[in-house]
Specification:
Length: 261
Amino acid sequence: MLTNGEPIVRVHNLHKWFGLLHVLRGVSLEIHPQEVVVIIGRSGSGKSTLLRCMNLLEEPTSGRVEIDGVVIEAANGEICPECRSRVRDLRLKTGMVFQEFNVFPHKTVLENVIEAPIIVKGVPKEQAVEKATELLRKVGLLDKQDVHPIRLSGGQKQRVAIARALAMEPKVMLFDEPTSALDPELIGEVLAVMKDLAREGTTMVIVTHEMGFAHEVADRVIYMESGVLVEEGPPDQIFTCPQDPRTRQFLARIIESGRVI
């Protein structure tokens, strides 16, 4: 992990309301280049909403998001007018991998990966194919490049989704519970790709329930509850001697359930 220099991600006092439901309650967070941050917590604690607000798939009710120098501010439920033109720029800085793979069913694996660079960034097709081939080799799917998603396993679809996100050359990768929709025997192949990305220095923010993976890969683990970042620290500290009783209670339940930490 590199911690020198300026953070590449800054989130300040972020709030998100859905009607009367206050989902994010003043979240502030900084992430440095090449840092791997894993966010854990109960379902419904606001983890996925935080990721979606970071790349503006959900618009914050109020607060500030900055990624690699692109700043978006919101107040009173609205993105500031001068920020509207910067939303696309911010999204280009982030790649996102969802719980459900969201690959295009009517396109081959290769076509899925080259679509956004060609359409959004105007990359020449030959160049996009060259990059896609490199990424499919990285995620172990080069032999599937002409296959449609219906013929892929869930783990293979998720690896296509990772390659597709990487094809845009984002500054930060966001993973929203990327293994939660997979059968247990397929989880490992997706986590292996993510471990490789971590070793290569990819800046990542990961929401996951895979505690063993979090312990192994994270530079920093954050426990989130009720829309608040309760506690954060190195994995050894969080998993072996958490300071906040809410973190201790959550991890005790994880251990009782038999999940590996």
